[in-house]
Amino acid sequence: MMEYSIKILGGGKEVGRAAIEVSTSSESIILDYGVNFDANDNPNLPLQEVPSKVKGFIVSHSHLDHVGALPLYQISGNFPIFGTRLTRLITELMLKDFLKLSGAKVPFEWTEVRKVMDNFRSVKYHEEFEVGTFKTELGDAGHIPGSSMIKIKTEKGNIVYTGDTNVINTHLVKPAELEFLRDANVLIIESTYGRFNHPERKVVEEEFFESVKEVVEGGGTVLVPAFSLSRSQEILSVLSSRNFDYPVYYDGMVKEITELMIQNPEFINDYESLKKAYNYFKYVNGWNDRNKATRNEGVIVSSAGMLKGGPAVYYFKKIADNPKNAVFLVSYQAENTPGRRLLETGKFDEYSPMLKARFQIFDFSSHAGKNQLKDMIKSAKNLEKVILVHGSPDSSSVLAEELKRELGVEVIVAENGQEIKVF
């Protein structure tokens, strides 16, 4: 019988840059192939394997840390890539934007991005398909619209990779399908929040909405720096679902991604709220609109989510000195970003004055918290091995110790380059 192994090409012992190879002696498939960035904004690419062995790629979702390096393999050949239709459509936008911003720092060009899209095949949830001789299936991961968990079915057992995942009901997505994990023998699962639990989402939404309303009714402008993919649409849906009747502006790549989501309603949980936001809130189209958005009370939802570039930086500088205004962060703030610096020091950078506008952070995370990850893992009834990826060393190690104690199964905190025999 075949022997199966897993090699971590990226995403082990760090947040982001997911890339995992599942192999037999003769062939392999790669699950995600992402890119993240160092403190100087240089792209950090995953490890590469011998192309002749690779039969194709399966993509869990369209965030850059899961798809950003896909063009690398298209330099030397044509490799099939599989994912949901919405993942395919958004991946094209993300790769084009990535190349526009970082093209001089990566070893591929427009030609390879085009080949990625030409070779990207859309599959439906629970539709079995083959990559080489690997039989595979996708389930809903509950992370962002179109996101997937990936199941690889072998004669010795099932390997399931969760990608990024969440188990709560949000405006954009339904919870991850726990039933999909039931027959997993080997589970590769993210551990981004392996140490922490999130507050209840309904409470967060209500606090956010009431805080926004308070600032705007006091004559101020609220800046919400948010990722263009998913977080912006979630925030806009929160406001539209509560019939927020003050001006709301959105800026950046938000519009294009929102349009793709609206064109694919089967992937959206609260479709009416998203469509209402698109129809009634105003897209910022140029500098005249940007100036108008900062002159009157209202809300501005703008990329980038960590205030590291994007139109949000312009808005921040316009509204920061007025105590009537507010800056509400709704995303994780990585180290060495202006958003993290604001949290730690109250200043945008070392040369800036102290922020005078109201400042709050709200936990709208699209990743499962510690107890939710444990519940997901416990839903697998024939579990033999858990492999933790996509987490900082402290998050992964805390979760690993609790899992060993509570479940008594083998738990591996994966490291980049590590090869793990599974069957």
TrEMBL record:
GO: which molecular function terms? hydrolase activity; RNA endonuclease activity
UniProt keyword annotations, A-Z: Hydrolase
Q: Which residues form the Metallo-beta-lactamase domain?
A: 16-219
Q: Which Pfam families does the record match to this protein?
A: Beta-Casp, Lactamase_B_6, RMMBL
Which InterPro entries does this entry report, sorted A to Z?
Answer: Beta_Casp (IPR022712), MBL (IPR050698), Metallo-B-lactamas (IPR001279), RibonucZ/Hydroxyglut_hydro (IPR036866), RMMBL (IPR011108)
Q: Where is the Beta-Casp domain?
A: 232-342
Question: Phosphoprotein: is it a keyword of this entry?
Answer: no
Gene3D superfamilies per record: 3.40.50.10890, Ribonuclease Z/Hydroxyacylglutathione hydrolase-like
Q: What is this protein called?
A: MBL fold metallo-hydrolase
